[in-house]
From TrEMBL:
Protein name (database record): TPM domain-containing protein
Record field: transmembrane: none
Region ranges (Disordered): 125-145
Pfam families recorded: TPM_phosphatase
Organism: Pontibacter mangrovi
Entry-linked InterPro entries: TPM_dom (IPR007621)
Domain TPM: 4-120
Gene3D superfamilies tied to this protein: 3.10.310.50
Amino acid sequence: MPRDIITPEDEQKITEAIREAELKTSGEIRVHVESNCDKDVLDRATEVFAELNMHQTELRNGVLFYVSLEDRQFAVLGDAGINATVPDHFWEDITAEVVKHFKHKKYAEGLAKGVRMAGEQLQSHFPYDRHGDTNELSDDVSFGE
């Protein structure tokens, strides 16, 4: 079970990273963790993206960090508004950093680092507007089976 590996302290660390990142950008970041992925990881991440209603942000600037722990699968997926503006290596750089931590079973540290990297990069394309920005999606980590 994912909650056996991601402790409440880990969950807090990841949530804090999301909140910190979203103070720099109007982008919306979610982290979803589950045990198994029985299909292509990007296909599953796309399903979770839809299940979490991440495509319904006003600027189409949602980012999903998807983790399947037992299968050792990871994907980071951005909505149309983000993919149209970020540099080509954006997702690859974040993925490399997260996976580096995962290899040492430091899941929370890897996810927190990746989330912060996404926030820093998104800041230039989707700056935070403290007067008009609302938190459109939950900052909590979501869990699947």
